[in-house]
Write a structure and sequence with these properties.
The chain has 344 residues and is of the alpha/beta class. It contains 15 helices and 10 strands. It comes from Variovorax ureilyticus. This is ABC transporter substrate-binding protein.
């Protein structure tokens, strides 16, 4: 027997179906219940995911999405590789690291066109900092070991003549715990995302030594456009669930389109209160800083994957650039369709 709520929903859906045929003849989803793993959802790095979730864009595509938040991208990646999540909202470069281990994963919609990661040294622990060599033997806080915050730190160290083994990496997350770790002197430097880095910078807690929160800063560090946050899944999942991947891409691109015109007040009203870390003004100052780093249409730029590969291969001996097939790292077909649909 239909209970009242089911009947009401069914009646509403029936009326909607009569009143308006399915948008673009939406094909049937192979899987409507989707679990997404993310590492540090409160960071601006994943703002498009949060916006699409909070504004109901996944539901509008017929998806029931469950988002599990982990301390960092490497933990979220483990959940997807291990099969406890279908899709990862994570860093593009993870698809490269996985392929180097003969595991094929594919990005299918881009959320960020710059890593939005800054590295700062503690003004309290290292007041006389003079260069990267001074970090030898120091403790560096990252969201989680193996995450993109760790990757950017490794790149900066290698350019300064240090190896990853010359420092100690400590996982501090991307929220209040990261602020506490730096301010209490538990770590000497930090590689993290916003709003954490802007909060530390504005209070004079850190001196920024490398910054990929802007497109120019990213160009300076990586020598080109560096695709960042994206939704990725195993190539097998993408092949078996094209309509589901299309629905996910649609929801994200819808969120990206909304973000293009959203004002500070709109952002504050949409994200959970805890994301503001107790300081609205600083949260909005951080948003202004990273706004241009957010993708506009979900499409991975043509030269982006090569930039990412060159960066990783420069310090990670397990990644051989000539052995990586760039074309298998991503597909833009879903994002292109979503872009056309939402005029992003």
């Amino acid at each position: 027997m239909l209970n009242r709520r089911t009947f009401t929903v069914a009646a509403a859906l029936g009326a909607a179906a009569i009143g308006a045929p399915l948008v673009h003849g939406q094909p049937k989803l192979e899987k409507s219940k989707i679990s997404i793993a993310v590492g540090g959802k409160a960071a601006f790095y994943y703002l498009p995911l949060t916006i699409s979730e909070q504004l109901g864009y996944f539901q509008a595509e017929g998806l029931e999405v469950e988002i599990s938040d982990f301390a960092g991208g490497s933990r979220a990646l483990q959940a997807v590789v291990g099969g406890s999540a279908d899709v990862c909202s994570g860093a593009f470069e993870h698809t490269i690291n996985l392929q180097a281990k003969n595991q094929y994963f594919q990005s299918f919609v881009l959320q960020g066109r710059a890593p939005q990661i800054a590295i700062g040294v503690s003004t309290k622990n290292m007041p006389a900092y003079g260069g990267v060599a001074d970090l030898k033997g120091k403790k560096i806080g990252v969201s989680a070991p193996g995450s993109s915050t760790n990757m950017v730190a490794n790149l900066v160290l290698s350019r300064g003549g240090l190896k990853a083994s010359d420092v100690s990496y400590i996982g501090v997350g991307v929220a209040a715990g990261a602020l506490t770790a730096l301010r209490s002197g538990q770590i000497d430097a930090i590689s993290n995302t916003d709003p954490v880095m802007t909060m530390l910078e504005q209070k004079g807690d850190v001196k920024i030594i490398s910054d990929t929160r802007t497109l120019k800063g990213t160009q300076d560090v990586f020598g080109g456009l560096m695709p960042a946050a994206c939704l990725y899944a195993s190539s097998e999942f993408v092949q078996k669930h094209p309509n589901t991947c299309q629905a996910l891409a649609n929801a994200i691109v819808h969120g990206l389109k909304w973000l293009q015109t959203a004002g500070p007040g709109d952002i504050i009203k949409t994200v959970p209160e805890t994301y503001l870390l107790g300081d609205r003004a600083l949260y909005l100052a951080s948003f202004d800083k990273v706004r241009e780093a957010i993708a506009t249409d979900g499409i991975v730029p043509a030269d982006g994957p090569k930039t990412a590969l060159n960066a990783i291969a420069s310090f990670d001996p397990t990644v051989k650039a000539d052995k990586i097939d760039l074309s298998k790292l991503y597909t833009n077909e879903f994002a292109r369709r979503a872009k056309d649909r939402f005029k992003a």
